[in-house]
Design brief:
This protein is mainly α. The chain has one domain. A hairpin with a 5-residue loop joins strand 1 and strand 2. It is flat and about 50 Å long.
């Protein structure tokens, strides 16, 4: 099983642990600073959309071969 993130990054059993650990760490850091007025991430661009669709198509084709 795998997950394709919005930015085209593929998460699988090899890297999901590290990604989740980093997510949890960043959540804790944000919670420790309640005055931090984060503006969120950057807007989703046409390039981001294209990269996501390319990776998604590749992963769907790979899954069909299994």
């Amino acid at each position: 099983a795998c997950v394709v993130k919005h930015n085209g990054e593929v998460l699988d059993e090899k890297n999901i642990g590290q990604i989740l650990s980093m997510r949890d760490l960043m959540t804790d850091l944000r919670a420790a600073n309640p005055l931090n007025q984060g503006g969120g991430g950057r807007p989703f661009s046409k390039q981001d959309r294209s990269r996501f669709l390319d990776v998604l198509e590749r992963e769907v084709r790979r899954a069909k071969l299994l």
